[in-house]
Specification:
The protein is of the alpha/beta class. The chain has 3 domains: 52 residues, no CATH class; 381 residues, Methylmalonyl-CoA mutase (TIM Barrel, Alpha-Beta Barrel); 143 residues, 3-Layer(aba) Sandwich (Rossmann fold). Helices cover 45% and strands 10% of the residues. Helix 12 links the parallel strand 9 and strand 10.
Length: 698
């Protein structure tokens, strides 16, 4: 039968062959499945305070998101998306030794990376030689960049330099090294990552002072406009705020408020609004919530386009370039292999959200110096998503999803409101310096840690499904290399000129050219920074904390490991499993995961018929803790008798797996000391038990 046969051509459209369900139909079926519970139980409240309903429809569609490549750029910066390759791979290089980092950089490019993200250590960023943090490349002078210029073609390889408060000094060293190696600075591409406010939040110190750093940002931007047009000067990073507990709304608001601060400074120095915007990019961490993170990037482009429009920026310059980084906050030291799944989700979210650049951190990043396997897997994760999943072949994959469009709009609206509040109070610099940001993030971090502690945000392999028998993955901490003494050169004259120029900035980029001359004569980063500081005083404030989600539980596991090493046995709890397997197994499995997340070994068994049998087995288990596991139907008659029997046999702690409901008072009277269930404070319970055992002393 041919497709032109009337039997085919006269069929009605496919949708008309089926009954059309209504919202009321869905509501009725959903309420039935909830067994009498209200439909509102399906609504999720995010850390940002947004409420996400269980169903999105055309009625939820927000304002028109526009078209790809057109304002407000929600659907992407260009009409063809990030390109057929999807997000460009930018792998981080951060070994303390410049020579090792140069070798790693060459390996990353050979594996498929498109560009490099060079992160410098705290000593280089802050000008503090006593800084103990060793993560990041240590630079002394322009010779330290030789391994990169010798192994890489930096005229064709974008490089992103994160130097914190020393951005201008390091930029001068980069240009000096390029000239010495015969690379035209105009051929350099990537970014210098000037971000004084982000550096202050991250390191707690700006050696040049905030005012001086902003003045040099203007100088650097002016010079770059003329001499390195493909090397963006400013990268607004939300990583310090993300690691301190910020939610998506806060990250967006802080990013926008910071960028506006820089635009304002540039405008005060007669920068063309479009040219100023072209010098600003954004770096966002991508967490574990796929849809929120994808919507966050789309919302960032919306609010930046709106702000740029208000500043008189032409349409074509309002698109926000975004570098996404799979979140270091979500990485774990326990069962670190799961980190590969977390970074894969983050990579997917970044691609759906339309990131231009993407960095996946190695799965062992939280443990120490990454090995070859971890670095290779980080790059390959992105390569597979790009080449096998073809994420880059679809423009705005999430576009048209009522759910994602609504979430994007709600994030943008909430972030814009928060941004307005920051502006009304004096701007981002004032919010950082007066502690407003720190106080906001303290509350957010406490809420986030509570969500992890109460199993609302479980961490697989740590707070849920832990493996007490796992073999710890060991990595050596990266150590700062022994550095040769810098060659003795007379830089007095040029550093004197630099000091004088920095003390009387003209705003025309002259000071940057003098800094490059000084770097070319062998001036060190510290000497350059000291000269650029001139007579200004450093700006110092408490740096924001950097916390991983899993840390609170990992500390308990660490304490258990110490106990095991000292005594040959972990703290243990006896599972008083009662009845048949189907009656006790679900709660016994829950209890096992619950306690082993804190390093407390759960002593299982095949169940008992009577309280006396269970109590006798407990007495032989050499522990003072027990948890009763059975069914709700058995509990009313079972719990009082069993609790008393366990107490007679030496139990100090008797817990019940499940909610007590109306029986709590009676069961506590019988000797029950607590209850474990999905919404209890798992972390607090584990801390109390470990303190009672003497494992913890806090």
């Amino acid at each position: 039968m041919a497709l032109s046969d009337p039997a085919f051509t006269e069929l009605p459209p496919l949708a008309e062959l089926f009954p059309q369900p209504t919202i009321e139909d869905w509501r009725r079926i959903a309420e039935t499945s909830l067994k009498g519970k209200p439909l509102e139980r399906l609504t999720i409240r995010t850390h940002d305070g947004l409420e996400i309903g269980p169903l999105a429809t055309a009625d939820d569609a927000p304002s028109d998101p526009g078209y790809p490549g057109q304002p407000p750029f929600v659907r992407g910066r260009t009409a063809i998306g990030p390109g057929l390759d999807g997000c460009r791979i930018v792998q981080q290089v951060a070994h303390p030794s410049a020579d090792v980092s140069g070798r790693w950089a060459a390996e990353e490019l050979a594996r498929g990376s498109h560009s490099l993200w060079l992160v410098l250590d705290r000593a280089t960023r802050t000008g503090d030689p006593d800084a103990t943090e060793s993560t990041g490349v240590h630079l002394t002078d322009e010779r330290d960049l030789d391994p990169f210029f010798e192994r890489l073609d930096l005229s064709n390889t974008p490089i992103h330099l994160s130097a914190g408060g020393s951005s201008s000094s390091v930029a001068a060293i980069l240009i000096a090294a390029a000239r010495r190696h015969g690379v035209d600075p105009r051929a350099l591409s990537g970014s210098i990552d000037c971000d004084p406010l982000g550096a202050l939040a991250d390191d707690g110190k700006l050696a040049l002072g905030l005012a001086g750093s902003l003045e040099l940002l203007v100088e650097q931007t002016r010079w770059s406009n003329w001499h390195t047009p493909n090397l963006r000067t400013i990268t607004v990073s939300t990583l310090p705020y993300h690691m301190a507990g910020a939610d998506a709304v806060q990250e967006l608001a802080y990013a926008l408020a910071t960028a506006i601060e820089y635009l304002r400074v540039l405008a005060d120095h007669d920068f063309d609004p479009g040219a100023a915007c072209r010098q600003i990019g954004f770096r966002h961490a991508i967490g574990r919530d796929l849809f929120v993170e994808a919507a966050k990037l789309r919302a960032m482009r919306r609010i930046w386009a709106r702000a740029a429009d208000a500043c008189g920026v032409p349409d074509e310059d309002r698109a926000a370039p975004i570098h996404a980084v799979a979140s270091p906050r979500g990485l774990t030291t326990r069962d670190p292999w799961v980190n590969m799944l977390r970074t894969t989700v983050g990579s997917f979210a970044a691609a759906v959200g339309g990131a231009d650049l993407l960095t996946v951190l190695p799965f062992d990043t939280a443990i120490g110096e990454s090995d070859e396997l971890a670095r290779r897997m980080a790059t390959n994760t992105q390569t597979i998503l790009r080449e096998e999943s073809h994420l880059g072949r679809v423009i705005d994959p999430g576009g048209g999803s009522w759910y994602l469009e609504k979430l994007t709009d709600e994030l943008a609206v909430a972030a814009w409101g928060h941004f307005q509040a920051i502006e009304a109070a004096g701007g981002m610099a004032a919010a950082l310096l007066d502690g407003t940001v720190a106080r906001e993030l303290d509350r957010s971090l406490a809420d986030r840690e509570k969500a992890v502690a109460t199993h609302r945000d479980p961490v697989t392999g740590v707070s849920s499904y832990p493996n007490l028998a796992e073999t710890r993955l060991r990595r050596e901490a990266a150590t700062k290399p022994e550095l040769p003494e810098p060659s003795v050169k007379d830089t007095t004259e040029v550093l004197g000129r630099l000091f004088k120029a920095a003390n009387d900035l003209t705003g025309d980029g002259t000071v940057i050219e003098i800094a490059i001359d000084a770097a070319s004569t062998g001036a060190t980063v510290d000497q350059l920074t000291a000269a650029l500081r001139a007579t200004r005083q450093p700006t110092i404030m408490p740096s924001l904390p950097a916390r991983r989600d899993a840390e609170i539980f990992e500390r308990l596991r660490d304490a258990s490991d110490v106990w095991l090493a000292d005594r040959g046995v972990r703290p243990r709890i006896f599972l008083a499993n009662m009845g048949l397997v189907p009656e006790y197994k679900p709660r016994a499995a829950f209890a096992t995961n619950f306690f082993e997340a804190g390093g407390i070994e759960a002593l299982g068994n095949e169940g008992f018929s009577t309280p006396d049998e269970a109590a006798d087995a407990f007495a032989a288990a050499n522990t003072a803790m027990a948890v009763i596991c059975s069914s709700d139907a058995r509990y009313p008659d079972l719990v009082p008798e069993l609790a008393q029997a366990l107490e007679r046999h030496g139990a100090r702690t008797v817990l019940v797996a499940g909610r007590p409901r109306e029986h709590e008072a009676a069961w506590r009277e019988a000797g029950v000391t607590g209850f474990i269930h999905m919404s209890c404070d798992q972390y607090r319970m584990l801390v109390d038990l470990l303190q009672e055992e003497g494992v913890l002393h806090v």
